[in-house]
Input
Amino acid sequence: MKKSLIAIAAALATVVISGHAQAADIGYRQYSPPPPPVPVYRWTGPYFGANIGYLWGDVDNNPAKPSGVAGGIQAGYNWQNGFVVYGIEGDINLSNADDTFAPWQFSNPWFGTLRGRLGVAPWSNVLIYATGGVAFGGLQARLNGLEEDRSHVGWTVGAGAEYAFTPNWSVKAEYLYMGYASRAYTVTGADNGFDTNLIRFGFNYRF
Output
């Protein structure tokens, strides 16, 4: 009888220990480490790209309203602090904007800007920014076969958005207003400057 009780107790102990071991093993197998954090896109660094868009505007002291396609290249550098992104960008562009229907025909064959940029990246790889700085460009006046070219300096302000679809490549949309100071033109007998609006799209490659 005593031996039977000892055997039963030993069997129960074996079952209990085996059950605890299986439960511990099941719990261990069910555990999985947390997924790695999602990489956060960083806007810091240099970049280079190209753009194309449409430009339209008005000539001061003249009825001419040049308009046309414009495109060029840009380069810049960004810094990032948390969600805030700031930097500097410069661009140079060619344009076929002109007005061939006014008595005095004006065209804006080239222009460029040097601007600061300040924005936020609320969704990591999406940047929304404001921009402003110096604008410079050429204006050509024509009347009765006579041509006169002047270079103008002014200011620019605008806003845009940029979307990074890979670690290196991004696309952007941007609006700029550019106001150029007046200069004296012989063919018009007046001081002429010009104010332009530009909507453009482009891409950038980050190094």
In short: The CA atoms of residues 4 and 10 lie 10 Å apart. The two ends are 85 Å apart (CA to CA). Confidence is low (pLDDT under 50) at residues 1-13, 23-28.
